[in-house]
Amino acid sequence: MHEHAPHLPEVPLTLEGASLLHQMLRVRWAAWRALPAADRSSILQEASAALAGMEKDGTAAFTLLGHKGDLMLIHFRPDFETLGRVQTAISHLRLWDYLEQPTSYVSVVELGLYESTMKTYGGLTDKGIVPHSPEWNAAIEETMQRQHEAMKPRLYPEIPDAKFVCFYPMDRRRGEHKNWYQLPMAERQRQMSEHGMVGRRYAGTVRQIISGSIGFDDWEWGVDLFAEDPLVFKKLIYEMRFDEVSAVYAAFGQFFVGQRLDRAGFEALLTL
User: Fold this and answer.
1) Is 156 one of the catalytic residues?
2) How far, CA to CA in Å, does 108 sit from each of 16, 75, 238?
């Protein structure tokens, strides 16, 4: 451990990319059924065409399994302004009058840089640069810009073309006896490295996209898993529960599991 490590910032560097909005929706079936068939058809065709257009820009529709909703829309966009326009466009569809939104989730794609952070901080202090000084901040900014460019494909991904999705939010615990944010950075880095090894073993069968939501929503991170076989979600998450970082410090929100809908599938969902 570097001799100046106790004086180093405890916050790891992160790279941020695409802005995400998850919309969980429930159909107001009684009101929808009460419409004349011609009106339902017109409203559905308008919504279907709009979603087909949005899909080209980073939107995907999923039918939800279970009681938490009928439909989940996932939007990946370059920034919050664009995301806001998507949300407005959805709410302006006539179909919106026949939907309810029990919940939603706002976040940004995030890559945590624990290992890189420790190397960067250590290298700067070796040069005698004081944390948070103008020279320090300039060096950090230059490093982040370089890494952001190198990581662009991961920071601005396309929504994987997989049959199933599992989305859930999560926190790191801040309890009386176990508080993730009071662990030294080196210990957090060690645990996250072990945690990541499990995910890498599933790299061929599941695609994971982590998004940060601190300051944006009620939890700290959102996790999207995409796979052809939904059983992979259970196996991966179960195995990860045995990692120290999950077993001791993880808290999970609701899980949403859905199946991908193409345009025909979306129309079939709402066709009586």
Assistant:
1) no
2) 6, 11, 25
